[in-house]
Amino acid sequence: MASANLNVMIKAARKAGRALVKDFREVENLQVSVKGAGDFVTRADREAERVIKEELRNARPNYGWLGEETGEDAGEDPTRRWIVDPLDGTTNFLHGLPHWAVSIALEHKREIVAAVIFDAAKDELFTAEKGAGAFMNDQRLRVSGRRHLGEALFATGIPFAGRGPLPAALQDLARLMPISAGVRRLGAASLDLAYVAAGRYDGYWERGNKPWDVAAGILIVREAGGFVEGIGEGDDALETGRMIAANPQIFQPFAKVIRSRD
Question: Is this structure's pTM higher than 0.90?
Answer without folding.
Answer: yes
